[in-house]
């Protein structure tokens, strides 16, 4: 299902998108769709409109009755002139006659023809409506149920029965149904959220039309604020609530320099913008659903703040703000609700705050992950927010919450964008929790004292064996967390070290990295731990698979089995023609690493373009070291080890392995070191794990090959249950 930016942002009239805009659209749609055929409209002698549930309970206060009358006359929320509304309603009610679609006049008595069914609900939503047209013989010509599901969205009974919000199946180039999918699309495409939304919009309209529509939305927001700070008087509804925005505007305008000195005065302006929109909405003026009328003040206020107070504001950044915030609104619309009648004000003001926060960060130049974090912050403190309309009036609720919520959204502008990025960790992953106690092994290597961090998790009884888990280059000991638990439960003692140069271990500035050296370091650790006479099994993943092979070649007599999980090095990249690069070149590339680049790489190479929440901690773990104070140290260690991996393939020595070996190969993997520098023709052939796995199994005498057709580079992360079952079965067989 496809939802457009202009489904989220709709120009209409107040005071409620679900109780005013939606009913007006439904009434007009009923007449237009079912009665406008030639000759059919002329048969209509009477129209009956019934509203149910929330529409009936608070409908009069929200202007539902007025909206239906206007809709039956053919008025549309985005086109109607608010100034003609009073006279039009006075004519209909005074004459007790209505002109359907401005063409066919019939009698219409509200007491008889407009029913408020407060104790009844239609099946699919609390905001239900039923329209019925009769001929002169009181026979039904047409009847139809509609639901106003929030934000001005209207669905008919068929769409509601199929649980469809907008029955639009337009195929989009970048579809998304969740925040994870949205971030995955940006990572895979390299587009910003705003650019992605713009490309999707091109499925419905031209680029010029998109920009014109965005200008129209922004102009309507500006006009609403301008009218709100100008109009005086008392808001309709009988509560005698006076407009406050004009007086606040005069006060702030008398001291314009204060906003330049005092951030709190700046927030007074933000408060003013929100108040102006809210009061216009309560008065039935023209507003933009953002995502609803009830919360219409939040997003325009933050956008006005950006336009007036943020350096570099221009039209394109305003467009970025709107497109990004629309993407966030679509997520809530698709997965939750933006209807206050259905979920309370958390679905209106909360969503608006989330949209505004994400849009603001986008306009300020934030990346997709920072935008996501801002949107999440904008929502989390609104969870549980409810509505309590006094006398069924929109001007009593949720309008008062808007200024405070909009200030909360705008305050995110005061937070450095770095604070919204992925977490920052120390050069030895200080601050990242492994889930198990981390121990340290001190060793002397290459004339310098070093430390290896490791996990040592033992079963309650005497272990039946020891399993040594070796991590990949972009992973750490903790990435085995979902495998450690079942291994220990099965009776194994698990040792999972961080290799020198990685994660929580030392990162020496000068070190001659080789798999032989790392194998020697690991052997020293195991000797120190005095494992006893129990069998030892080594399991290596990715780069850890290369290390495991080297360890098995150096210490074959000490191992019961070898397990290789999508090991790299199964092809000689240099010999195949991948260009060599210096350590300095590797380092330059590492210095450009970010959360987004990590995620983009892993999506493309590891996970076949499908991102899951389970991958997130490990991407953030890796990026966190680059975001922290030890970035250069981390980047240098990674450059040195990249050089090691590239120049020390293991494919030529597979035939020498004597330890019983099992290969676990995720078939969707495309990992190949240096592929970014390879020619397009060569790149297409690299990292072909369905082929590499079979070739490796053929080269290793007596080996077993276990293939996972739907998994990629990290089976133990992608599907722990499937992987652990296969691993335990293999270990038991050894």
Automatic annotation (TrEMBL):
Residue stretches spanning the membrane: none
Domain AB hydrolase-1: 466-595
Any one GO molecular function term: metal ion binding
Record InterPro entries: AB_hydrolase_1 (IPR000073), AB_hydrolase_fold (IPR029058), ASB_dom_sf (IPR029009), Fe-S_L-Ser (IPR051318), Fe-S_L-Ser_mono (IPR004644), Ser_deHydtase-like_asu (IPR005130), Ser_deHydtase_bsu (IPR005131)
Domain Serine dehydratase beta chain: from-to ranges: 4-158
Domain of life from the UniProt record: Eukaryota
Keyword hit for Ribosomal protein: no
Pathway: Carbohydrate biosynthesis; gluconeogenesis
Record-level GO BP terms: gluconeogenesis
Cofactor: [4Fe-4S] cluster
Serine dehydratase-like alpha subunit domain location: 189-413
Keywords tagged on the record: 4Fe-4S, Gluconeogenesis, Iron, Iron-sulfur, Lyase, Metal-binding
NCBIfam families: sda_mono
Name assigned to this protein: L-serine ammonia-lyase
Organism in which the protein naturally occurs: Knufia peltigerae
């Amino acid at each position: 299902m496809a939802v457009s930016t202009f489904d989220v942002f709709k120009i209409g009239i107040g005071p409620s998108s679900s109780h005013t805009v939606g009913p007006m659209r439904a009434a007009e749609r009923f007449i237009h769709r079912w009665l406008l055929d030639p000759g059919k409209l002329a048969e209509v002698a009477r129209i009956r409109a019934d509203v149910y549930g929330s529409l009936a309970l608070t409908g009069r206060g929200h202007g539902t009755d007025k909206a239906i009358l206007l809709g039956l006359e053919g008025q549309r929320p985005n086109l109607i002139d608010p100034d003609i509304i009073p006279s039009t309603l006075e004519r209909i009610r005074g004459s007790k006659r209505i002109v359907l679609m401005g063409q066919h006049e019939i009698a219409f008595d509200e007491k008889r023809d407009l029913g408020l069914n407060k104790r009844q609900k239609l099946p699919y939503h609390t905001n239900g409506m039923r329209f019925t047209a009769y001929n002169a013989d009181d026979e039904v010509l047409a009847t139809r149920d509609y639901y106003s599901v929030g934000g001005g969205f209207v669905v008919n009974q068929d769409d509601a029965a199929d649980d469809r919000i907008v029955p639009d199946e337009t195929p989009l180039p970048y579809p998304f149904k969740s925040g994870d999918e949205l971030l995955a699309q940006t990572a895979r495409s390299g587009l910003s959220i705003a650019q992605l939304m713009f490309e999707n919009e091109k499925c419905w309209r031209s680029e010029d039309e998109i920009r014109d529509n965005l200008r129209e939305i922004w102009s309507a927001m500006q006009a609403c604020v301008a009218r709100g700070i100008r109009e005086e008087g008392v808001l309709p509804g009988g509560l005698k609530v006076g407009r406050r925005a004009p007086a606040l505007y005069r006060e702030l305008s008398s001291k314009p320099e204060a906003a330049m000195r005092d951030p709190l005065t700046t927030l007074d302006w933000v408060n003013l913008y929100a108040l102006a929109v809210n009061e216009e909405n309560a008065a039935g003026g023209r507003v933009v659903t953002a995502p609803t009328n009830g919360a219409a003040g939040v997003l325009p206020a933050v956008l006005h703040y950006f336009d007036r107070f943020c350096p570099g504001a221009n039209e394109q950044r305003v467009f970025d703000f709107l497109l990004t915030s629309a993407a966030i609104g679509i997520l809530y619309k698709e997965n939750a609700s933006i209807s206050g009648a259905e979920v309370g004000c958390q679905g209106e003001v909360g969503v608006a705050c989330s949209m505004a926060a994400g849009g603001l960060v986008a306009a300020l130049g934030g990346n997709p992950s920072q935008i996501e974090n801002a949107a999440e912050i904008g929502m989390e403190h609104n969870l549980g927010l409810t509505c309590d309309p006094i006398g069924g009036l929109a001007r009593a609720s949720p309008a008062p919450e808007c200024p405070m919520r909009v200030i909360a959204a705008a305050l995110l502008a005061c937070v450095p964008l770095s604070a919204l990025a992925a977490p920052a960790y120390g050069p030895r992953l200080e601050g990242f929790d492994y889930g198990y106690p981390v121990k340290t092994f001190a060793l002397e290597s290459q004339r310098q004292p070093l430390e290896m961090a490791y996990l040592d998790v033992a079963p309650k009884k005497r272990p039946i064996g020891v399993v040594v888990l070796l991590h990949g280059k972009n992973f750490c000991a903790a990435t085995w967390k979902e495998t450690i638990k079942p291994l220990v439960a099965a009776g194994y003692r698990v040792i999972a070290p961080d290799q020198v140069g990685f994660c929580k271990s030392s990162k020496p500035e000068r070190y001659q990295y080789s798999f032989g050296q790392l194998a020697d370091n690991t052997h020293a650790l195991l000797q120190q731990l005095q494992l006893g006479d129990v069998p030892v099994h080594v399991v290596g993943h990715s780069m850890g698979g290369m290390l495991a092979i080297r360890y098995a070649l150096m210490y074959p007599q000490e191992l019961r089995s070898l397990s290789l999980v999508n090991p790299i090095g199964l092809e000689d990249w240099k010999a195949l023609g991948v260009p060599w690069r210096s350590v300095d070149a590797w380092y330059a590339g590492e210095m450009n690493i970010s959360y987004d680049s990590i995620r983009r790489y892993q999506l493309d190479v590891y996970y076949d373009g499908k991102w899951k929440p389970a991958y997130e901690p490990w991407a953030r773990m890796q990026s966190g070291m680059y975001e922290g104070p030890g970035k250069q140290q981390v980047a240098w260690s990674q450059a040195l080890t990249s050089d090691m991996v590239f120049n020390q393939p293991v494919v030529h020595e597979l035939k020498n392995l004597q330890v019983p070996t099992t290969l676990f190969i995720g078939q969707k993997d495309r990992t190949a070191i240096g592929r970014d520098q390879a020619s397009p023709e060569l790149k297409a052939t690299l990292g072909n794990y369905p082929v590499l796995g079979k070739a490796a199994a053929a080269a290793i005498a007596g080996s077993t090959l276990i293939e996972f057709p739907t998994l990629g580079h990290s089976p133990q992360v992608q599907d722990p249950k499937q992987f652990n079952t296969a691993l335990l079965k293999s270990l038991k067989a050894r």
